[in-house]
Structures are given as C-alpha cells and as structure tokens.
Design brief:
Blueprint lengths: L1 H4 L2 H17 L2 H18 L7 H10 L6 H5 L7 H13 L10 H15 L7 H4 L2 H10 L1 H13 L8 H26 L1 H7 L8 H11 L2 H4 L8 H13 L3 H18 L5 H30 L10 H15 L30 H31 L2 H17 L8 H17 L13
Helix pairs in contact: 2-4, 2-11, 3-4, 3-6, 4-11, 7-9, 7-10, 7-19, 9-10, 10-21, 11-13, 11-15, 13-15, 13-16, 13-20, 15-16, 15-17, 16-17, 16-20, 18-19, 19-20, 20-21
Length: about 450
C-alpha cells in the first residue's frame, strides 16, 4: 500500500478524480472525498509529503466556491477523520520525525510577533478576540511556527524518496490541473466568449491565477532533461493571461520573463536554444497581450479607476499607519468595511494588498517582521543556488507577486502554509557547489 500511494498510478487516480469533480460541478462533495483521502494517506504512509497532492488538488478546485466558509463550515463532521489522522500520523510515526530549526524559522517568529502585537492600543478587545481575527493571528503566527516544526520534521528524505522532488512533481501536476479548470470554463462558456469577444467571467480568477503562478516555474526545472517542458510553463502562463485576472495578466508576465532567465544556462545546448526561443516568443506575445489589453481597458476607464476600492484602501492604509505607526490597527480591525464591504463569511477586513496590509495592520513592527522574513528567505535561496532551490524560490516569487494585489500570503490555508513548506524544502537543498550524487543527477 505504501508503495502504491507513492506511485504515479495514485497521482493519476487523484487527478482523474479531481477532473471528475470539476466536470460534474460537485466541488463540495469532492472536498469531502479528498479530506478522507488525505486522512487515509496520513494513516497508511509515513511520508507526509504524499498528502500534499490531494491537499492542493482540493484547494485548487474549491476556489470555484466563492462563499467557501458558509459552504464548508457546516461540514464540521467531515473534519473529524482527517484531524484524527493528522494526530495519528505525527504520533505513530514520531520515531521517523526529528524536530529541527532552520534559517526560515526565525522569519516566521518575527511575523508571529508582528501579527500578535498588531493593533495594540488601537483595536478593540471584541475585534482582537473575535474568532476570525484569532484564526488569522494564530494561523499566521504561532500556529504557522508549529506547522513549520511539523513540516521540518516530516518533509525529509526516506530511503531515496525525495520530498523536494515530490513537491516539484506535484506542483507541476497542480499547474496543469489549474490550466484544465481555466480551459474547461472557457469550453462550457464558449458561445458567450465567442459572441462577446472577451474572456468568460471567472469569479475565481485571482485565486486560480495565484495557483498558476505558484506552478509556473516548475516545468522549467525539467528542461534540463527535455526541452519540451518549456511549453508546459508557457501553457500555464497563457492560462494566467486567460484567467480574466489583471494580476494574472501583468504579474504573470513579469514572473514568466524572470523565471526564464536563470534557466537559460540549464540543460543541453538544444534546451538552451529552445528556452531562448521561447523567451523571445513569450516576450512578443506578452507584449502584444499587455499593450492591447492595457490600451483597451485603460482608455475605457476599466483598468484602474480613481474610485476603485484598492486605490482607496492604499490611502486608508497610509492614514491608518499615521494614526498608529508602531503596531498598526490590527488584523481584526473592521474599519475598512466602509470602503470594501464584504458579505463573505470567514474573512477579515482586507486591504487586498500585501504591503498596505503590513504597514496598515501592523505598523513599523509589521514592516520589520515581514521585511526580515523576506530578506532571510531571499538569502536562503541565494546561498543554495541549486536548480531545486531556484525553482522553489521562483514558485514562492509567484505567490509573493500575487499577494501584492490579493490577500495571498495572509491566508493561512493554503498559501501561507505552502510558502512555509517551500522554504522548509529550500533549507534541505544541497548547495550548488556540492557535486550531486549519481542518484540525484
């Protein structure tokens, strides 16, 4: 059983199941199914990394559920088995797990201090101790530090089984699955799209773009084996453009160009030639899409408007920082509802942009905490400089870009967890100057 769960056959079965969920439009039922699969995997398999693919597949197809909290909170009974499985996994397989602390842990602690102290002296006790505020403060802070320790102890090498390679393979699959979701949406809305000559209205565009940008660099890792993988990255990029997300259009282009640069030197000469060729084609296509899209949207006053909520939220964040420069107004503060009212349950009052969220909600303490985390993560990737470390670092870069215009990393599950996992894996990468073994090459 353990061998099957780590095999390509099990991964294929998961993907087929996820595709069926999307095609049937049964995301809630699929979520319950995948929760049980995750629980079974954690009980049957000591390698925690095997549970990552079903977890991310579920997180990907549920982005179609807009008011997810209202849909999934009543399903409390469905969480009992997987939560018990998590406890069983880390207790029963505890001899296989060794707690350790790496470089990225200290950045998590810095952020934990920032989110915990955020709003002190400004936020009311009722807002600070509200269930949703506590979820985000705990999930982004002390809770994420605990998750780091669990991931650090379990995402390790077992008799040739590489958690890093498993993550990279799984993110490749997730990227292609996200592409399927975009293309499937266009297929079922083909008539509307064809008649109106515009992308189909995708309400979940920013979330799916975030997942696409997490996966975009991953196929490039495999170009050292075969140049054809470049086209998978281009497909992921194309779907980010087609997602009807402005961030996917602009920031996806930025990521695609930056991702191609370090991989030009990888692989054989033919692969390098194809990457250069793809770089030119991608740049030309991106330039056409961006210039034409920006021209039409900007001059129709639809691209960025002075009365747009995010523009107002930037000014609000500046005012909030001025009013409480040390600790900000706190994550649980509800003062922004006059600008961005939301009927969606389970959310806090976002600035919808990472940088304003940091200095508006947490002040100078937040800037120092998140700044320290970002710098230590960047230094960690630079120190490793291996193909795996660069791939993982660029995957996080995609999430970081999307977080500038979306809650992104301020969502404990899945994005903050995935970011934490990425740097747990980067910590385990060999340094670039170390000669790989025959098995690793």
């Amino acid at each position: 059983m353990n061998k099957f769960l780590k095999s390509a056959y099990f991964k294929a079965l998961l993907v087929v199941s996820a595709i069926a969920v999307v095609m049937l439009g049964k995301e809630v039922a699929g979520f319950v199914l995948f929760l049980n699969i995750i629980g079974f995997v954690l009980i049957a398999c000591k390698e925690t990394a095997v549970s990552f693919l079903p977890f991310m597949l579920a997180c990907t197809f549920v982005v179609k559920c807009y008011d997810s909290f209202s849909l999934f909170a009543p399903l409390w009974w469905a969480y009992i088995f997987p939560l018990c499985a998590v406890a069983f996994h880390f207790i029963y397989y505890r001899k296989e797990h060794r707690f350790a602390i790496g470089q990225s842990f200290y950045g998590i602690i810095a952020v934990a201090v920032a989110v915990t102290l955020g709003g002190i002296g400004k936020i009311s006790a009722a807002e600070y101790f509200s269930p949703m505020a506590l979820y985000y403060v705990f999930g982004l802070g002390i809770g994420m530090a605990g998750i780091y320790l669990l991931l650090k102890s379990s995402f390790i090498e077992y008799n040739g089984y590489s958690s890093r390679k498993n993550f990279i393979y799984d993110m490749y699959i997730i990227g292609l699955f996200a592409c399927f979701m975009i293309l499937h949406h266009y297929a079922i809305n083909f008539r509307t799209t064809l008649l109106e000559h515009k992308p189909a209205n995708i309400q979940w565009s920013n979330n799916i773009s975030t997942i696409l940008m997490l996966a975009m660099p991953v196929p490039l890792f495999f170009t050292k084996k075969h140049f054809a993988h470049i086209f998978s990255s281009l497909l992921i990029y194309a779907c980010a453009v087609l997602s009807d997300s402005r961030a996917g259009l602009i920031l996806g282009t930025v990521e695609m160009i930056i991702c191609l640069i370090p991989f030009i030197g990888f692989g054989r000469s033919r692969a390098r030639m194809m990457i250069r060729f793809a770089f030119v084609i991608c740049s030309a296509v991106a330039g056409y899409f961006i210039l034409s899209k920006i021209w039409s949207l900007l001059y129709s006053e639809n691209f960025i408007r002075d009365n747009e909520a995010r523009v107002k939220l930037i000014y609000r964040a500046i005012d909030d920082f001025r009013g409480s420069p040390i600790f900000g107004i706190g994550l649980g503060n509800r003062a922004n509802t006059d600008i961005y009212p939301s009927s969606v349950m389970g959310t806090i009052c976002w600035y919808h942009m990472m940088i304003p969220q940091i200095f508006g909600s947490m002040g100078v303490v937040g800037v120092l905490g998140y700044g320290y985390q970002l710098v230590t993560r960047f230094i960690l990737v630079l120190r490793k400089r291996s193909a795996e470390a660069i791939t993982l670092g660029l995957s996080y870069f995609g999430l970081f870009l999307m977080s500038q215009v979306n809650p992104g990393e301020f969502c404990p599950l899945p994005y903050a967890l995935v970011a934490t996992l990425i740097f747990v894996l980067v910590e385990s990468c060999e340094n670039a100057h170390k000669k790989p073994t025959e098995e690793e090459s």
